[in-house]
Amino acid sequence: MLATKPCTATCVIDGIAVTLTFFPDTGVLRITDGTGSRLRETRWSASWQSLVATFRELSETPVEDRADPDVLFGSHYRSHPLSGRYAN
Questions:
Q1: Residues contacting residue 22 through CB under 8 Å, at least 6 positions apart
Q2: What is the block-wise mean pLDDT of the chain (88 residues), using blocks of 10 residues?
Q3: What backbone torsions phi and psi does residue 57 show, to the nearest 5 degrees?
Q4: CB-based contact 86:39 (threshold 8 Å)
Q5: What is the spatial distance between Cα 32 and Cα 19, in angstroms, rounded to a whole number?
Q6: Is 59:81 a contact under the CB 8 Å cutoff?
Q7: Cα 52 from Cα 38, distance rounded (Å)
Q8: What is the pLDDT of residue 84?
Q9: Nearest by Cα to 38 from 46, 47, 30
């Protein structure tokens, strides 16, 4: 396994600040709230740059035209007890 540094970014989803942490060596994408509590963990099969571009596109797209979170983050997204706070 490679020992690469994780990539992190903070963004706002539905008015809530969240931190994205992507581990390029494993593909793990972790989303946490401002307190550091894990809201979601999934795998992202593309690059960090692709992830950032996806979030940038989402932020510039009207809510009614946004992709379903299940498509972006997998079907487990809605099964998380806090996911309803962030789903559009």
A1: 6, 7, 8, 28, 29, 30, 44, 48, 51
A2: 80 84 92 90 91 80 66 51 42
A3: -60, -40
A4: yes
A5: 5
A6: no
A7: 19
A8: 44
A9: 30
Residue matched to tokens 């972790």: 30
pLDDT of the residue at 4: 77
pLDDT for the residue 27: 92
Give the span between the Cα atoms of 22 and 49, in whole angstroms. Answer: 11
54-60 long-range Cβ contacts below 8 angstroms, 24+ apart: 55/9, 55/11, 55/20, 59/11
The stretches of the chain forming alpha helices (DSSP H) are 48-59, 69-73
Is residue 32 within 8 Å of 19, Cβ to Cβ? yes
